[in-house]
Specification:
About 35% of the residues lie in helices and about 15% in strands. It is built from eleven helices and twelve strands. Keywords: Glycosidase, Hydrolase.
């Protein structure tokens, strides 16, 4: 097993070298793409999976189990991050039987043909809903063990406001006790904390103090100095704030970026040029890690398609890399 791990590390290092020299895109597991379905005339799941494969995208995030998509992923070797839909989290928290049923219906039925990597218990849950996260994670871990399934890590996807502060990065701590309890559990299971990181939203929220180029991984006069580290882009500063909060909580937990992206239309700073710049730079960057942790950072770009039925701000409809007809919104290389 140790030799297998060493070989895997070596293989990853070789692929990352090719990234840094510009000879290849993402390394295996370095970056995936989120598959949202709130759009009209989207391709059928089998076509979507083929599009992932044709573009060299090696991981996918699904926001809820879907039979046709999971069947299409069978044998594809595409790594899968699958969500428990927000509305189902309290049910899975309520007892072991509900978690057992969810695992039987949505995991075991497709395992091992589908390469499940993570289960996200909800996406950016807030308020009273956060009380269900910890028991649901525990119940799902027990259900996976009962079903004889190994290697799938159970976590939850959070946004940056779980931190009380994030600037400077080293000062960050978790705001609420429930997060400390969650990361303490993750520290015992080896599961990563899934974090949605959006420099775009930080930028539009404070354009006076946040430079656009700094947000886009572009050369900027803005540099954050913190405890001997220099931050030349906002993404790294945000991710290292999460690492600092984990250190403050006295746990060793990996971080996976479960969403990050930039809109191509619909609001301030949202343009095809900026979206292409951010997402391509993100893909090129994540293999290098961050100033405080120089190791590959698994990252899921949001999102595969523009979704015209999304609610909220107009920008929410324009995060896609591809149009519903599978034509690219802009060229990008993985």
């Amino acid at each position: 097993m140790a030799l297998q791990r060493a070989a895997s590390v070596l293989a990853t290092a070789l692929v990352l070298t090719s990234i840094l020299t510009g000879k290849a895109g993402c390394s295996p597991w370095a970056c995936g793409v989120c598959y949202g379905v709130h759009g009209d005339r989207l391709p059928k799941p089998a076509e979507v999976v083929q599009l992932y494969k044709s573009k060299g995208i090696t991981a996918i995030r699904l926001y809820e189990p879907d039979v046709q998509t999971l069947l299409a992923l069978n044998g594809s070797n595409i790594g899968v991050l699958i969500d428990v839909a927000d509305e189902n989290v309290p049910r899975l928290a309520s007892g072991a039987a509900q978690a057992d049923l969810w695992v039987q219906l949505n995991i075991k039925r497709y395992y091992p043909g589908v390469s499940f990597r993570y289960i996200a218990v909800g996406n950016e849950l807030a308020g009273a809903a956060t009380r269900s996260i910890l028991p649901a994670i525990k119940n799902l871990n027990a259900a996976l063990a009962k079903a004889g399934i190994k290697g799938i890590k159970v976590s939850t996807a959070v946004k940056m406001d779980v931190l009380a502060t994030s600037s400077p990065p080293s000062s960050a701590v978790f705001k609420d006790d429930y997060m400390k309890q969650i990361v303490a559990l993750l520290g015992t299971t080896g599961a990563p904390l899934l974090v949605n990181v959006y420099p775009y939203f930080a930028y539009i929220g404070d354009q006076k103090n946040i430079d656009l180029n700094f947000s886009l991984f572009q050369p900027s006069s803005r540099v954050i100095k913190d405890n001997g580290l220099s931050y030349t882009n906002l993404f790294d500063a945000m991710v290292d704030a999460v690492y600092a909060a984990l250190r403050s909580a006295k746990v060793q937990v990996p971080v996976v970026i479960s969403e990050s992206g930039w809109p191509s239309a619909g609001g301030v700073g949202a343009s095809v040029a900026n979206a292409r710049t951010y997402n391509q730079n993100l893909i090129n960057h994540v293999g290098k890690g961050t100033p405080s942790k120089s190791q590959p950072l698994e990252t899921y770009v949001f999102a595969m398609f523009n979704e015209n039925r999304k609610t909220g701000a107009e920008t929410e409809k324009h995060f896609g890399l591809f149009n519903p007809d599978k034509s690219p919104v802009y060229p990008i290389k993985f």
